[in-house]
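Appendix B.2, paired examples.
Example (i):
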Amino acid sequence: MYPNLKAEMVRKGLSFKDLAEQVGTKYATFCKKCRGDSELTIPEIYKILEIFGMNFEYLFKKDNATEVCDG
């Protein structure tokens, strides 16, 4: 759902599980949020922005794909 976030995760060598741990949420919950099944909280968004040092508009640009959480 967020292709730029996924691309930056690859660049940093982070899996969805790694990022979920850094954000402080469960992997399954984080996957649901990244797919758009539920929403990220503001503190989670700020933590992700802090981890990557990038702006919201870039990291959270949406697409229609739902394939996330590849491990």
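Example (ii):
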Amino acid sequence: MELRNKVFLGALSSVLVGGAMLWEGVRYKPYVDIAGVLTVCHGYTGGDITQRTYTAEECRTLLEKELYTHSKKILECINVPLTQNEFDAYSLFAYNVGVKGFCSSSALRLLNQDKRKEACNAIAYTPNGNPNWSYVNGKFVQGLHNRRKYERNICLSGSYKFS
């Protein structure tokens, strides 16, 4: 891990937490998501979910803990210094696709080659321009593609607005 990247482990940006809350939404009772995964709160999928109603505080704590864990783990795969917006974008992306998904992605490969624009674009698009990381069980999901475009926008410009 780049020494400079260790700085990001101290605190999660409010923008990262807010972005995750925006795209994950919140459900206080466990449910099965569109991929068939037991989920609660802001997209939490840990093996310790119990069938009960969670509080807003519990959900926020789970989200922050998981974002911190995902962010720390993705930094182990990244070999170049990051800007805050890149860190936020890749952390939000990894929170949704998993650390393994991020660490095996073309976005990471391109980032580690210092092809930053191409890496950011790879979050949302394949090289031929098709949606990337926007499918569940082989079916295109517009909401996921909208999220990928949001993450790409953060990565490229540091803009946290959805357009």
